[in-house]
Design goal:
single chain; 203 residues; 0% strand; mainly alpha; 7 helices; extended
């Protein structure tokens, strides 16, 4: 029953939401189910936060990754305290509130640092991907070079037209192909879950 109940519930709710897109009288119940989904998701977020805190507290007890666990716990509880203080002050989202100061001077620089590291990773991955082994790699390299030259102020006027053509025609066509593939994959996974071939909610 512990496995059958969640499976039957997920199948019934999934089919209900799917059919409600095509049957108008069922859309009221569909909105209610989506609202429940949001509520359950909010509680799942709280459970995830509690699990995260417990995991790092266990790290401190065992002496594993102590500096990282301390930084995470300090950042979590510090931001939570600042957010509660700003909320009771009535200016939580004011540009000069303590919470927005934490966002602007702590979180935003950390995000910029992560993205800058990601840029170096992308550069190294591009270097490996652009090795000319066949005609497709050569075309990819030429397209990348032309697009980069079209974005540089020194050569922007010379390559602007062909850069826009590459971005608007071949690039957009590839993006649409990827989106279609992702949509078909999502539909296939949804059908596998509805028919019980995949049960990730039981793991």
């Amino acid at each position: 029953m512990k496995r059958t109940g969640p499976f039957v519930l997920s199948v019934v709710i999934g089919l209900w939401i799917l059919v409600a897109f095509f049957v108008k009288p069922l859309r009221g119940a569909q909105q209610t189910l989506l609202l429940w989904y949001t509520i359950v998701g909010a509680f799942a977020l709280v459970v995830g936060l509690i699990n995260l805190i417990q995991s790092h507290l266990r790290n401190l007890q065992r002496g594993q990754n102590v500096p990282y666990s301390l930084i995470l716990l300090f950042g979590f509880f510090g931001t939570l305290a600042v957010g509660i203080y700003a909320f009771f002050q009535g200016n939580a989202f004011d540009p000069y509130s303590p919470l927005m100061w934490v966002y602007g001077y702590v979180l935003a620089p950390l995000q910029s640092t992560m993205f800058s590291l990601l840029a170096f990773f992308l550069a190294s991955a591009a270097f490996r991907a652009f090795r000319i082994r066949n005609m497709e790699a050569l075309l990819l390299l030429l397209a990348a070079v032309i697009v980069m030259l079209g974005r540089i102020p020194w050569t922007e006027h010379t390559f602007a037209g062909i850069t826009e053509w590459i971005m608007a025609i071949p690039n957009l066509a590839a993006q649409r192909g990827i989106q279609i593939g992702v949509a078909l994959g999502a539909i296939g996974m949804a059908l596998r879950i509805l028919f019980g071939l995949e049960r990730p909610y039981l793991r």
